[in-house]
Amino acid sequence: FIFQVDPTYTGRVGASEAALFLKKSGLSDIILGKIWDLADPEGKGYLDKQGFYVALRLVACAQNGHDVNLSSLNLTVPPPKFHDTSSPLLITPPSTETHWAVRVEEKAKFDGIFESLLPVNGLLSGDKVKPVLMNSKLPLDILGRVWDLSDIDKDGHLDKDEFAV
Fold it and tell me: Taking the model in full, what pTM does it have?
């Protein structure tokens, strides 16, 4: 999703771009306003990667009849749905009850592993991550795809959030 609203990989999604994208969720402006306030608690006027993911989780919660609040972030809900017939990039995943986000308890574990690999300036190189990935015993072509999908900004390094993915 973030590639659609941040195609130049600035790491920030402005209020107008985010509003246009989030409106495709079909939720009311009142609900979307609550989501924005929770995703941008400091009132910066833009969403960073973490804020954008919070917004997506809250959209999914609202679409599934849950309250829009921070405690809803821990609920298991299907991915959010966005309606945009003009964009070939947007593929609505099948609505299965899959857990598509990193759970809080998993994130804490992954953050610990990330820190144990001694990141430099908050980033890990492929050389440092490779042994961890190899421990999964997955085929190399699959691990390569995992890396490509996880290195969201395509800088050849993983930050803490990319590592958790």
Answer: 0.48
